[in-house]
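User: Second chain of the day. Same drill as before.
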Amino acid sequence: YHLLELQPADIVAHCRKRRRVDNVSPATQAQDVGYLGEVLRMARTYWKIRYKADPVADAREILRMAHNGQPPLIGRPIQRDRRPTADELGALRNYWNRNDRRQLIPMADIMDFAVATAWRLGEICRVLWADLDEKDRTIVIHDRKDPRNKYGNDQVVPLLGDAWTILKRQPETDERVFPYNERSVSTAFARVCKKLSIENLKFHDLRHEGTSRLFEQGYQIPEVSLCT
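Assistant: Same format as last time:
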């Protein structure tokens, strides 16, 4: 659409189609609409494109409403409390170990590393060998996600428990320790969960599991926050 022709109804129709076709969550829709709003603000303030109304702001009022028994099209993310069971982790590990020769990605190691570190998948897939401190068993995570500090948030993180062992057995074939696309890892995880009939388990739930384990092992809030 040409910006001057874009209407709130067009944005609402887009979000309805996204729900129907792609089954995206209200939180994802809210993020998408937010990105569009940022583009329109840039158009007005920086590119000096003058449009009379803000179609995103007007559409948000409709998108926040429930309609015909359906939940709102945009909303806050639902807090998950799903933790994998030992049997589920064991089944996933056994599957990948049996099929290891056919796997381009060491999924069993990445899964266990995610639990051991409570890191985000994006952090796992971009950590560098050059940032590893062998003596202190620490590694630097660059530009770590933080609501108060979006960029340049580099953090030295300890490698606790099995994390060090898993990291050290990775081949140094790339500057990254785990040189894989995070979407590919996430897709492979979801595919095998479906194959093994493991329901409602996402890769990000491994981070929750790892965080919970740190508290259960007796670490205090400052120590856990340093890892997570």
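The CA atoms of residues 62 and 122 lie 33 Å apart.

User: Great, on to the next one.
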